User: Fold these one by one.
Assistant:
Number 1:
Amino acid sequence: RYWMGAEMGGKPEVVAEWSGHIIVRYFIWIAVKIAKLYNDAFLVIESNTPNSIQDSGFIMASVFEEIADVYTNMYYRQSSPEDIRLGKPKKWGFNTNRTTKTQICTHHQVVLANDMYVERSLDAVNEHDTFEVKLDGTIGAVDGCHDDRVITRALGCWICYKALDPPIFADDRKLEYSTTTTI
């Protein structure tokens, strides 16, 4: 989001990616470390994926509470007025369901059509090429393919454009580049 800063007029870029197979609990802590490395970046974790893994050996809410003790710049869903009144904890994480997945992917179509983000991963580009609307109306990867990168990009772009204001730099600095090279 750096280039989206005031008077820069840029677009978001994917600057870091971790991909692999690991216990979800450990993966979440890796995400926290990466966010920390990127100047306390806004961390958005999908809350329902770990909840759907019944044999994961942990309760997702407890992991969010652990993380919140050391890292506070995380996405949370708005609680109902009743939950707020009762002092219930925040609902950490983005809940991906049929409605929200359609919402972020519809927005992502606009982002792609208008060249509104920079993608550098050939794997992500290939996943975009195999993303489809199924006969039953659901959306996802062609059978046998993956869509994890498409969904993370769609969610990331939705957060960048719909949930956050453009970044503001405390010292109002601007980058300056020189066109001369010294050898």
Number 2:
Amino acid sequence: CYAMKANPFLSGEIAATADFLEVCSPGEFRICERAGVPMKKIVLSGVCKRQDDLEPIFSRGLQIGTYTVESVSQWELLSMLSQKYGRAIHVLLRLTSGAQFGMAEADLLCVLREAGKNPLVSVDGIQYFSGTQKKSEAKVREEWSRLDTFLEELKNQYGFTAEKLEYGPGFPVDYFGTDPGLEQRMLNCLNECLQSLRWQGIVVLEMGREIAASCGCYITKVVDEKRVGSEHFAIVDGGIHQLHYDGQMIGMQTPPVFQLHGGGRKETWTVFGALCTKNDVLLKE
């Protein structure tokens, strides 16, 4: 499942390959519509689901593949709209990792009990996502152990067999070339976790950055240069809003840089973007 927020411009192309596209906002949904993404491939997610945004989908008869349920109130809204328009829908119940996303186990069980009262809504399974740029194999193993236990409890104690688990691995991307083996180690760890599952169902991996990070280069042009004391400053027509990503670590790192044109004597420069903030630093010294 491609989380299209990672690069919306790839949505149309990836729709021909990915099983699903995760869509988190009305704007993202409109992008998918314009790109001709099949509605059945859309997983309509997001913590903010308003009736004004959802009702046109139901009234137009668009058959979204899956809706995620992030709260009891989201469940009530989706259930109401399905009954109002007589539309059968499929949902995934999002389990929280302790953040603002998803529901606590008690709320999720409450929704499961209510789901049986609306025959138009099919609960396909669980969605779980706990963050991005995760570099800890121990954390991934801990998550899968928790999910495996929870899915077994749903079956044995509450009579609910989840057919599907959509999991956001949040795999890291080695943007700065500091740990070349990192991505492969995390993939190997995930593979081991999948092989050891007691629960047997469909696992959908929600990948965004892992798919899109290497799709292209960012090109920016020096538009001005100046010397302030002993320091050399170059101003480019881009900025950190296009390039810079710290993830879980605050601090400057140096991305791989290639000079396409020019050349001459070697000097030490700091490269700034065009944003009106001192923090718009692409390369320091």
Number 3:
Amino acid sequence: MQIDILTIFPEMFQEVLNSSIIGRAQKKNLVKIKVYNLREWTKDKHKTVDDKPFGGGAGMVMKVEVIDRALQDIAAGYKILLTPQGEKFNQKLAQKLTKQKHLIFICGHYEGFDERIRSLVDEEISIGDYVLTGGEIPAMTVVD
């Protein structure tokens, strides 16, 4: 299985993915995991991945253009948006995901996503009814 993770904090994944059972699975080539920095797909000198919400409101949201470019560059896979509104992650969903050959996880941050990003993914997943600072911990949870 191939797993790709899109994030603005790739350094958060190093210890988790290179340790324990996940680390051993990678060494045995049972799974290939690659973490991408979304800033690689920005076009401005400041590597901006967020913007003010189009309709107004507080905070900043992840830009659709950056995520769209990233998804176009990565080989086709089953695209998952990690979001509080998604289907709650459980064992049944975990078993469903194991049938995929290639998973792509999109980790949000800030106040959320540009709503157009939802049209780019195959599924939205939530790991529970609580607030986290971003999608990195949910991605680690689902990958584990």
Number 4:
Amino acid sequence: IRELISLAEKQGVNLRRVDRRKLDEISMTGVHNGVIAIAEPHPHYTVRERLEMLFEQRIDPFFILADELNYEQNLGAILRSAMGAGVHAVVVPTRRGKGLTPVVQRVAMGGAEEVPVIREGLSSALKVLRKEGIRIVGADMDGAPCWSVPMTGPLALVMGGEHKGLTSTLRKRCDAIASV
């Protein structure tokens, strides 16, 4: 806690000490480890807006599209791994699966703050990505070995649902399928 306080003070973050019961009261997940930060809401993007930002910075986009994530812990784990892998956005469908929740944020361990979650239909997102020349690779257990599938340059990695894997509709929209 002392190190965290020192870092916050160096960054000019306003600190306020409160009783642990107050933290229990305002915690959305029931887990706070003695610290809660109040921050601005996450920015909202569309796939097109995020692509334009990356193109302006001359960065090859790297997106993950994840279908039917029903367990918040799985989206949190994807965001945590995505942050480590340099992913620029995770796209989840507007109708199927979980979005950004306090549980997702806790499991993501900072990934939700670094990697934008875009709620957009996967078909429309794939259409935009393909039009912009982004290579689309599906991840499925019956694909080619991942080391044999080119995954450099602009890339979108498509992951299927937790129980179903890639649907035939998503599979048809991919340039290649890599095993995971």
